[in-house]
Design goal:
The radius of gyration is 20 Å and the shape is extended. The N and C termini lie far apart (55 Å). The protein has six helices and five strands; from the N terminus they run ββααββααβαα. The protein has a single domain, classed as K homology (KH) domain (GMP Synthetase, Chain A, domain 3, 2-Layer Sandwich), CATH 3.30.300.20. By secondary structure, the chain is α+β, with helices and mostly antiparallel strands. Strand 3 and strand 4 form a beta hairpin.
């Protein structure tokens, strides 16, 4: 029996029996409770869990207005969520990865933001190199 605190229902402990009632795994329950406590539209949070030879992949879909809260400044919130999921995975000897899907109608990165990041040197601008220059860069 796993216990998860829900921010939306203060002082009420919601008991979730993972395999009996919901067929959800601990990493999925953890991510769902964490994300739902961060966003303004918790009803639109959807998590898909797939397992393959590379490990566990949790795919997160949220409302377009909540993407900024999940990503955070410079992606710090998303990095923190991924780190916490790795810790949960290590507890069960599994590699857990998170993919955040951009919602339909999502804003994406604006052209102005992209240009500003390139001016500040935050994004490498692609430069055309010859094959010989690329091989020289490898220093083989």
């Amino acid at each position: 029996m796993y216990s998860v605190w829900c921010k939306r229902v203060p002082q009420q402990l919601i008991q979730l029996s993972v395999h009996e009632k919901y067929d959800m795994h601990e990493d999925q329950i953890f991510l769902e409770s964490l994300v739902k406590s961060l966003v303004d539209n918790p009803e639109s949070v959807k998590i898909n869990r797939t397992v393959d030879e590379m490990g566990v992949l949790l795919t997160l879909d949220v409302h377009a207005d909540d993407m900024g809260k999940i990503i955070g400044r410079s992606g710090n919130t998303a990095k923190a969520i991924r780190t916490l999921l790795r810790v949960v995975g290590m507890k069960h000897d599994a590699r857990v990865n998170l993919k955040i899907n951009e919602p339909e109608g999502g804003k994406g990165m604006s052209r102005d933001m992209s240009e500003a990041m390139q001016e500040e040197g935050m994004v490498a601008t692609p430069s055309a190199k010859t094959l010989d220059e690329a091989i020289d860069d490898l220093k083989i």
